[in-house]
Amino acid sequence: MNLFEKSNFNCVSSSSLDRFHSSGLSERVGTKRNGYGFCRETESFYALCLSHRRYLCYARGGLSPSRPGGRGASTYNCSDNLGYIRGLNAKQKQLVKKLVHICMIDGKKTRSRAIVYKTFHRLAPHGDVIKLLVNAIENVKPICGVKKVRISGITRLVPSITATNRQETLAIRWMLESAAKRRIGKKSISLDQCLYAEILEASQKMGIARKKRDDLHKLAEANRSFSHYRWW
Predict the structure, then answer these.
(1) 59 vs 122: CA distance, rounded Å
(2) Buried (b) or exposed (e) across 47-61, using 16+ Cβ within 10 A?
(3) What is the pTM of this model?
(4) Domains and CATH numbers, the chain
(5) How far apart, in whole angstroms, are the C-alpha atoms of residue 147 and residue 138?
(6) In its keyword annotation, does this UniProt entry include ATP-binding (predicted)?
(7) Residue 89 confidence (pLDDT)
(8) Are 112 and 179 a contacting pair, CB within 8 Å?
(9) Which H or E run contains 160?
(10) CA dist 123 to 59, 81, 89, 99, 196, Å?
């Protein structure tokens, strides 16, 4: 097979080609230079350049490309929505990080971050994204909860005040669980669409997560007579 067929010819600048050779990618495919500092690509070399097009683009600017995604990695470019988290204070940044970490499964942080930023992109037409998220969490987070305590052989539900950090964690977890329940039997709907709908409803004091918070408050109110059993 002729390695230098006429199909899929393309040209790469000499500076990019030098960086290509220094990266070790040239060992995987044979290349040939002519007198003008350019090379003609084979089909395999053309496909390899497409798969590493980020490297060739960033090489001219002197920037380091991001790591190419492996199997199952998201193809969504998270940098498109970085404008939503610029100019935030430390507390708001911590809230966004917590949302990404709770959404993450099996350590796939890139996919989790892509889902969160896609959700922010869908929320953008409705106003300030961070303000909507904060309002949704404020409307969902529970102020109090119940804990099972065994007293005289009987298990009682003793109400107690929930810590602030725990309130935010429960609110985000409930919204993600509610968004996941929306996908049952509807595989054509993505998780970011469901999370977008849940955050929008929670900001208006509606939705499954808000109902779960109200039910917990009612349960704590019904067992208020056992509050003196709290020892912690």
Answers:
(1) 33
(2) ebbeebeebbeebee
(3) 0.63
(4) 87-143+163-212 (1.10.455.10)
(5) 22
(6) no
(7) 83
(8) no
(9) strand 154-161
(10) 34, 12, 20, 15, 7
Q: Half-sphere exposure (CA, 13 Å, Cβ side) for 112?
A: 15
Taking 70 as the pLDDT cut, the residues of the chain under it are 1-86, 232
Residue corresponding to tokens 């929930």: 162
Q: Count, in order, helices (H) and strands (E) of the chain.
A: 9, 2
Closest CA to 116 of 70, 84, 72: 84
pLDDT tens column, 132-164: 999 999 999 999 999 999 988 899 999 999 999
Q: How many residues are recorded in the chain?
A: 232
DSSP 226: G
The DSSP annotation for 102-126 comes to HH--TT-HHHHHHHHHHHHHHHGGG
